[in-house]
Amino acid sequence: MNGSSVCLDMHTREDRKGTESDHRLFALAAWREAPCFSDSERAALALAEAVTRMSDRTNPVPDEIWNESARRFDEQALATLILKIGMVEFGNRVNATTKQIVGECGCE
């Protein structure tokens, strides 16, 4: 979503060590069409994408995206999701600013 090869490399490696399947990791790039994501996961992904691409539109987080996320997650879970999205975005900006290169983040 954010175009960061460092993020893609790091998070894919982390997820592969956990319980996430390769199938779902590969399908993430096409999450809207992929049948392997739940409605709650789609709401979280839509919110993450909207926050990530805020400068692409005049209404950064459209009501339909916000309302779907608020419908799927209670207040605490939604707050946690927003903070996690923000933390990933912060990391992406640091990586872009300091011109991090895939493999140099200690993930290999």
From TrEMBL:
Region of interest (Disordered), residue spans: 1-20
Ranges annotated as biased composition (Basic and acidic residues): 10-20
InterPro entries assigned: AhpD-like, CMD-like
Signal sequence, renumbered to the chain: none
The organism's place on the tree of life at top rank: Bacteria
Segments forming domain Carboxymuconolactone decarboxylase-like: 2-50
Alphabetized SUPFAM superfamilies for the sequence: AhpD-like (SSF69118)
Name of the featured protein: Carboxymuconolactone decarboxylase family protein
Species whose genome carries this gene: Roseiconus lacunae
